[in-house]
Amino acid sequence: MTTVETAPSAEHPGWMGKSVPRIEDARFIAGRGNYVEDVVLPNMLHMAILRSPYAHARIVSIDSSAAMALPGVVAVVTGALLAEHKLAWMPTLSGDTQAVLATDKVRFQGQEVACVVAEDRYVAHDALELIVVDYEPLPAVVTPQAALEDGAPLIRDDKDGQVDNRVYHWEAGDAAATEAAFAGADRVVSLTTFYPRSHPAPLECCGCVADVNPASGKATIWMTSQAPHAIRTVFALVAGLPEQNIQIISPDIGGGFGNKVPVYPGYVVATAASLLIGRPVKWIEDRTGNLISTGFARDFHMTGELALDGAGKMLGLRVKMLSDQGYAYADAQPSKFRAGLFHMVTGSYDLPAAHVVTDGAYTNKAPGGVAYRCSFRITEASYLIERLVDVAAVEIGMDPAELRRMNFVQPDQFPYRSATGFVYDSGDYAPALDLALEQVGYAEVRAEQQARRAAGATKQLGIGIASMTEALGAGPSRDYDILGIKMFDSAELRVHPTGKAILKLGVRHQGQGHETTFAQIVAHELGIPPQDIVVQEGDTDNTPYGLGTYASRSTPTAGAAAALVARTLREKARKIAAYLLEVAEEDLEWEADRFSVKGAPEKVKTIQEIAFAAYTNHPQGMDAGLEGVKYYDPPNLTFPFATYIVVAEVDVATGEWTPVKVVAVDDCGVRINPMIVEGQIMGGLTEGYAMAAMQQIAFDEDGNCIGSNFMDYLIPTAMETPHFDLFDTCTPSPHHPLGCKGVGESATVGSPAAFVNAVVDAVSHLGVRNIDMPVLSSRVWEAIHAAPG
Amino acid sequence: MNITVTVNGSARTSEVEPRMLLVHYIREVLGLRGAHVGCDTTSCGVCTVLLDGLPVKSCTMFAVQADGRSIMTVEGMATNGQLHPVQAAFHSEHGLQCGFCTPGMMLVAKAFLEENPAPSEEEIRWAISGNLCRCTGYQNIVKAVQAAARNMSEVSK
Question: Are residues A464 and A552 in the same domain?
Fold first, then answer.
């Protein structure tokens, strides 16, 4: 367990590895956060969205006359009006198109059809009831398998050249080498599974306040955005607004988890409405709007086959995946990789050959899929391989921990080039597995499991292991871009005359603790205490360009930029110190927060003294001031890893199950603030449990969304959420300036397989081999009763 | 309708529409922005305030129903510039991340600890189970409530 430390000490010099309490807490615990809904401007109007009740229908007519006649209504915006301004459609982050407001057809239940702008939020919602839309319902396509059948209704008939519902076909790895591996295998095991559609569901829904000044043309838009700079550029490209006149401000964000990366129709319509009306327009999404229309995640139908030799050594991996994209291909992902980083599916294992075939299909569902607390589809990949290894262990009669251990990529193999093209920067997987096994009391729990099986106990025990490796921190610009914008990030550091500082970053946190963690980086490099440093993010007029916070990329990219810009300032500080102390630069040495003269340690200048001199007494010929900016393009992704072990108790009579012990051993390299890292891991484990146990956006055969509110889309409370025991190992990244790797998403990526493995393990002796998520008690019961026994 | 509500110790009189939700009255009429809106279905608890000392979800009450009654919001927790022990503990135990659920969670914890000053972990988890958190996994919230309970009992000794 971490202890809170607020200052360097003799035992723990410097600011790295210290659990500094969060600087940003002060405003949140006082109720003084500033979220989008808190933004109130003079003369502001309110916008509400009318959504389609049908999954697929032709729009015959829209009559908004009664709505317009309601006192307080200022405007009703329809797709036809937007089309006059060439704004009815917009690009998605995967280069597809998405309707802003429907013109010809609606293509999913909940699609945006019209918007009311009114003096008051209640009036705006009243007016929605008065809009009459005449729909002609069409057959809905609700599975990707049905979408790809001959004769399936064509969903995207608006797109020239689109003759079927196929979105993409993409492959990775070596088909021939993989076929050869399978031909030489002693055993082949397979698993077909479905990772259901899920939703990040941050507690704050999406929203914006758009204020376009009719005189200056300046558009200031407060927005729930994890990537404000990218949004500004997209707005410039879509709306044709000059980019210098667009200011995106992401204020405090009430959770993001990938949901707040894309551009949503509400943002665009509110901005267009403000432009057309000349007054600020506020749009705050309701929960149903959030769950039914904004970026979902997962929805992958997957089959994995593993080739093994007689001893259990993995020889090859063959994977087929079919993705349900909804009606638009709107993944927030690097453009080079059509199924995100799903080809990371070889995971922690030394697989000589692998071949991954992926296809995407349009359906009559909301567009997505966002990277829900993961690095672009790695969650699905990690789930498949970690489930498949467990299936293999049962099939060949090996202990799942031993099967993992004997197939791990070994420490001397790094940097390791995987069969699908990743170059893992570092790793040492066995110690993490061993520590987790020790902490869970593996031998004892296995013995208890055997005893219960022998006794035919109603409550059986299962142990689920997942030893995952992630690839995150996009990215090297040679491989990673979104809509062509390279995925570097940036930091600007200004040290003020009194030795205080402001650090401005291109990323945008949503609770990850950047205002503390990144202040600690500067403190570590320059010796300015974190309390003296303000970290500013989210305002595009006042921060350097960056791609935002998602995919665990902030510390790998902007964190590196912060360290490097601080080092640049330290070199300038050296020159100033040399001038002040009247010695040569090479005669100075740096320690913690000061330069001293070698051999004359009493002659020192602290960073605060140097900063003051930079503005009051700087050397002639040198630029005044102490500030700089650094853009950081990482040479590679970072590859954190973990072993998660879940012990679950399953009631074989009812199918109910409970995780009774959860052990997490995470290795994310160097930890800047262990308290914050552990907070991220516990949050990630909770979302992993949520997906394993209850979260699902389901649909009926007509495309009606079942899961459009928090009574149908279940989120764990404190009662269901298990207690977590956290441990760590440390394998620093060899290329990150501080040795750090990303961590925010590791537990969400890795832990779902551990939960499901535990439940399946508890009933595997009854013949059960797989239960798809969410592992509801009814599904467990059904699996037990359907098993061959 | 004309209503008078005692809010964080001060009487406030306002003219409101009968259908105005209590959370909108608190946020938009009174300008107290610590209570949030998260779900519309009384599920998430980010709108929680104390009504006559007990937690209520202010998105599921009309403002007029609070007429003549007393409300505490997060803005009323600190006294004389001193954080309430629950607020201090949420900070020291890292019981918050994005901060959106935090005001409601802290108010529930405050009311609960007044009723049960020495709770078990199970009792704490039950007490906060009407309030969702997507960031923390609840473990540090539980620790914060435990720490607040210890600190409050120290003070009352």
Answer: no
